[in-house]
Automatic annotation (TrEMBL):
Keyword line: Membrane, Signal, Transmembrane, Transmembrane helix
PANTHER family from the UniProt entry: BATD, PROTEIN BATD-RELATED
A Pfam match: BatD
Lineage, broadest ranks: Bacteria, Pseudomonadati, Bacteroidota, Flavobacteriia, Flavobacteriales
Protein name: BatD family protein
Superkingdom of this protein's organism: Bacteria
Originating organism: Salinimicrobium gaetbulicola
InterPro entries the UniProt entry points to: BatD
Length: 587
């Protein structure tokens, strides 16, 4: 008997848990609207049900619906289901009204929604129609900027991921970028997107499809509140209408919408002053590694060795200076060769940077390379850390003993030892010149050839002068030749990279900017599309040519994130040659 009671209690608990997982709710597109506006009400459930019974909508007129949308997907082995009934309502009068409960039967259980309170006011100047295609598109299309950290330290990496959310109620047929954020207060780098992939997710609790359009890593270069500009897109949206064909398929209306991610603000914290080391140069990261290595510790005088100062790990590797290497005065030190092996992903910069010094000891002896200290702000512990290398002893075994070399325990030698002259023995001091010949030059064939050469050049000079004069008179031809030559000069790098989409469009954009800088004497910071249009028009360039130039710049921006064919690259290159030539002829 006791076991039966326990089994019954367990069964009831499991049943209650299963029932608790069912969701059935009502949502209104707005809770306050004018009497001349329309309202959309959605009834959404996460399990399929029967006998759906909507409320009466007594104070509203049903102008559309019910429209039914079903989403059923599997993600990582888990099923995600959603079914929605949508109604479009027009209020009959002003006042505060209640939309009653809707009912649905799911697995023999009846579920009801919560009543909705709606306020209807006087007519508004610009009504938004709940059944209007543009309104439906704007309500079901969202561009979102997701920021990994809104309160970072100075020079701490944060990521901005731009996602375009699309409701199952609509379709997106095409999109293009209108305006890109400039990130003026940040060091920024875009992460290459190999291809765009549609994924299933949620937006404000509703099932949506989304695609990641862009990923950017930012390192703030100022403290305080910094603004992240929005990304703006032009999207072609297909919205279902109430009309159907003879087979019952719904007709779609295409609407062009402009969506933006919205301005975002982050608060950048300054690095603490307390405990800041004296040699700190701005390095910020996590668990950085600092090393000083030499390729040999034993050698002869006037031979060379290489000493490498290296920092590796994860941090702002490209944004700080490495500490200098100090060597004894009797050891020649050449300017270091900088190298970096840094990759950027969503976690920020990772890899290593290094300075490699070439050192040449001049005399025999033992040369200590003193320890080198490197300081950075550790994000894991939120404190400063100082790493110090070990002292390295260089043993010079053979060579002249001029001067006094430092011992292992002593400091650097203060007196500069003059360079050993033997290292310049490769320069030949004795020559072996030979005479040209003993025969007389005057009267020789070479003498008469050189004598007659000016007379022979006179006809050629006359012909060349006439041709040059004719070319100088051809003003239009000169303009065309000069413009074509200038265009191909600036576009030479882009032509070499035809076939490589990323390098080609980077070279093409750089060529267009460099041409404007040289032609109109403007700086890179002034190169917004609006500024370029105003400058070109004010310098007498035709509006058609200006439009072509701006379209080329937009093609360069758009091609960073979407694939382009080889034919499109050749067309853009030919168009760039034509546009630069036209501008050069008109300005």
């Amino acid at each position: 008997m006791k076991s039966k009671i326990l089994f019954l209690a367990f069964f009831l608990m499991i049943s209650d848990f299963a029932v608790a997982q069912v969701q059935f709710e009502a949502k209104a597109s707005k809770t306050k609207l004018g009497v001349n506006e329309r309202l959309r009400v959605d009834f959404t459930m996460n399990e399929d049900g029967d006998n759906f019974n909507p409320p009466s909508f007594s104070n509203f007129t049903v102008v559309g619906g019910p429209n039914q949308a079903v989403s059923n997907s599997w993600v990582n082995g888990k099923r995600s289901y959603s079914k929605t009934y949508s109604y479009f309502l027009a209020p009959k009068k002003r006042g505060k009204f209640t939309i009653g409960q809707a009912e649905i039967t799911i697995e023999e259980n009846v579920y009801k929604t919560t009543p909705l309170e709606i306020e209807v006011t006087a007519a508004v100047d610009e009504p938004t129609d709940g059944n209007n295609s543009e309104f439906v598109a704007s309500e079901n299309l969202h561009l979102v900027a997701e920021i990994s950290n809104t309160n970072p330290y100075l020079n701490e990496a944060i990521t901005v991921v731009y996602k375009l959310y699309v409701s199952p109620r609509i379709n997106v047929s095409d999109w293009r970028q209108i305006d890109n954020p400039k990130f003026s207060d940040f060091w920024s780098q875009n992460i290459d997107m190999q291809r765009l992939q549609v994924e299933n997710g949620e937006y404000e609790g509703e099932p949506y499809r989304y695609v990641v359009l862009r990923k950017t890593v930012l390192y703030p270069q100022k403290t305080g509140k910094l603004n992240i500009e929005p990304l703006t897109l032009a999207v072609s949206v297909e919205v279902p209408t109430e009309r159907r064909d003879i087979f019952g398929n719904r007709f779609y209306e295409t609407v062009d919408k402009t969506v933006a991610a919205g301005n975002r603000t982050i608060n950048v914290k300054p690095l603490p002053q307390e405990g800041k080391p004296e040699g700190f140069t701005g390095a910020v990261g996590k668990n950085l590694i600092f090393k000083v290595n030499v390729d040999k510790r034993e050698l002869n005088a006037t031979e060379s060795l290489e000493a490498e100062v290296q920092v590796s790990g994860r941090g702002n590797l490209k944004l700080f200076d490495l500490p200098p290497l100090t060597v004894p005065a009797s050891m020649e030190k050449y300017e270091p060769e900088y190298a970096e092996d840094v990759k950027t992903n969503l976690n920020g910069m990772q890899g290593s940077i290094s300075n490699t010094y070439t050192l040449v000891p001049q005399t025999k002896g033992k040369y200590p390379i003193p320890p080198v200290s490197f300081s950075y702000f550790d994000l894991a512990s939120e404190s400063y850390k100082t790493l110090t290398s070990e002292e390295i002893l260089i043993d010079v075994q053979r060579g002249p003993a001029k001067g006094v070399a430092s011992n292992a325990g002593s400091g650097p030698v203060q007196q500069q030892i003059p360079a050993i002259t033997s290292q310049f023995r490769y320069i030949k001091l004795k020559t072996s010149l030979k005479p040209l010949g003993e025969s007389a030059f005057i009267g020789s064939p070479l003498f008469w050839s050189l004598f007659a050469l000016p007379l022979m050049l006179i006809p050629l000079a006359i012909i060349f002068g006439n041709k040059r004069k004719a070319m100088a008179g051809d003003v239009r031809g000169n303009r065309v030749r000069k413009a074509d030559k200038l265009a191909r000069k600036y576009l030479s790098a882009a032509k070499r990279n035809l076939g490589d989409q990323k390098k080609f469009y980077e070279s093409l954009e750089r060529a267009l900017h460099n041409y404007l800088k040289a032609k109109l004497h403007i700086q890179t910071s002034e190169m917004s599309k609006e500024r370029i249009q105003d400058l070109l028009i004010s310098n007498g360039v035709s509006s058609e040519t200006v439009t072509d130039f701006v379209k080329l710049l937009e093609s360069c921006e758009f091609a960073r994130y979407t694939p382009a064919s080889s034919v499109a690259m050749h067309q853009d290159y030919d168009k760039a040659v034509e546009v630069i030539s036209e501008i050069d002829k008109q300005v």
